Amino acid sequence: MISIVIPVLNEASSIEKLLQHLVENVTPKNLAEITVVDGGSTDGTQQLIKNFEVKPEIGIQLISSEKGRGKQLNAGAKNATGSILYFLHADSFPPKNFDELIISEVEKGNPAGCFRMQFDSNHWWLRLASWLTKFSWRACRGGDQSQFITRELFDEIGGYDETYIIYEDNILINELYERNTFVVINKKLTSSARLYREKGVWYVQYHFWTIYIKKWLGADADQLFAYYCKHLRNNKKKQNENVTIESPREAFIEK
Predict the structure, then answer these.
(1) Quick count: other Cβ atoms within 10 Å of Cβ 144?
(2) Contact 25, 19 (CB under 8 A)
């Protein structure tokens, strides 16, 4: 059975839509539970999850964790009961029958992998970037494509590296590629292009490429985080609140 783990922080605008999508596109007998791991939301996200009406045969649970996507993902994994873990961003929507597709790959002997992705944007570059995710190249991978992995392999690797405030998805993916245990399912997951719309496609893409190259050249977790904060972090404040307005990729950055 599959345990779905969704880390959230101020995702009131999307969490209900995602939960409804999951409920409508999963076979209940394949699902151990959906665990939403909240890192301290202040926008009503927690209450929306608690109030979400779900089929009796599908369990949705809300747990709390320290803020930081790696920490939240590990907390959700610790709480999970399924033999397959499926890590999903709050603004990424997997394809119909995603559970059956994942189980089929595991039964074939593929213990980890993701779906190909398409952004919810018609920008030509984002459409091209989406198309490239169907290939198995490591450079085309990212957490937005979601991540399934058997519990056994996840525990063997040691879970997500919590020292990385950003790039934690890629650290795990790199480990899986080193073990030759990664497969790309040729079905499309739809992910938000909100950050690209907010800051500009070329600006965001340039800095993501730079982060990737910096890591390849040996930059450590603190150096990557510092670069991200300087160029991609959104520091605008809501009126009358000391709360950062965050994009999906920024929602888990420690302040």
Answers:
(1) 22
(2) no
Domain locations along the chain: 2-192
Convert the pLDDT of each residue in 11-63 to its tens digit.
999 999 999 999 999 999 999 999 999 999 999 999 999 999 887 788 999 99
Question: What is the Cα–Cα distance from 11 to 228, expressed in whole angstroms?
Answer: 21
Please give the backbone phi and psi of residue 26, each rounded to the nearest 5 degrees, phi first.
Answer: -125, 150
pLDDT digits (tens, 9 = 90+) for 168-212: 999 999 999 999 999 999 999 999 999 999 999 999 999 999 999
Among the listed residues 102, 97, 95, 83, the one whose alpha carbon sits nearest the alpha carbon of residue 28: 97
Any idea what the Cα angle at residue 230 is, between residues 43 and 74, rounded to 5°? 50
Question: Burial of 107 by CB count in 10 Å (0-12 exposed, 13-18 middle, 19+ buried)?
Answer: exposed
Predicted TM-score (pTM) of this structure: 0.89
3-state secondary structure (DSSP) of residue 28: helix
CATH topology of domain 2-192: Spore Coat Polysaccharide Biosynthesis Protein SpsA; Chain A (3.90.550)
Q: Report, as an integer, the average pLDDT of 211-217.
A: 93
| CB of 41 closer than 8 Å to CB of 6 | no
Q: Say if residues 38 and 63 touch (Cβ distance below 8 Å).
A: yes
Element (H, E) at 117: strand 112-119
Local structure of 147: helix, strand or coil: strand
Q: Which residues contact 117 (CB under 8 A, 6 or more apart)?
A: 92, 130, 133, 142, 144, 145, 188, 189, 190, 191
The DSSP 8-state label assigned to residue 185 in this structure reads: E
